[in-house]
Input
Amino acid sequence: MNGHSTDYMLVMIDNAETAFVSWSKTPVAERAELLCRIGDILERHTDELIALCIKEAGKVAQDGIDEVREAVDFCRYYAARAIKLSEDDRLEARGVVLCISPWNFPLAIFLGQVAAAIATGNTVLAKPAEQTGLIALRAIELMRSVGLPDNVVQAVIARGSAVGNTIIPDSRIQTVM
Output
């Protein structure tokens, strides 16, 4: 099998569950600040991300520009929303979230889902489309470069059927986006 084996996917869930313990207790202001730094690093790497969108997803240059802009907007939007929503003490992080993104929005939807999940204290297994794994891996690498803790977001590079058979039915997965 290409990508992660079944055993490795289970280890990823274990790692995400362990990371959730501390990440969910990280103050919302710190999580929001991280998302703003992620937006900033994406902007600094716009040209590279556009090139990846062109190479992997077949985007034209303007679509790549729009893709990066929307990803940055999602990071900043969810940072602001997390702070606002934290005023409601009924809301709490759920746990490990599986985010599955499509090939046609390989950065914007990928990061939009991830940003929403981590802003609220969840950890993420991020499953990009099979065609756009490089974009996802680079996005996570950039996120880590500005302070994303280990195992808060992990890329699942695997066939959809493997994810469907292994990760989705696991009782530790709290939400699928």
Summary: Residues 81 and 119 are 8 Å apart (CA to CA). Strands lie at 96-100, 123-127, 153-155, 173-176. The chain is about 60% helix and 10% strand. The longest helix spans residues 61-85.
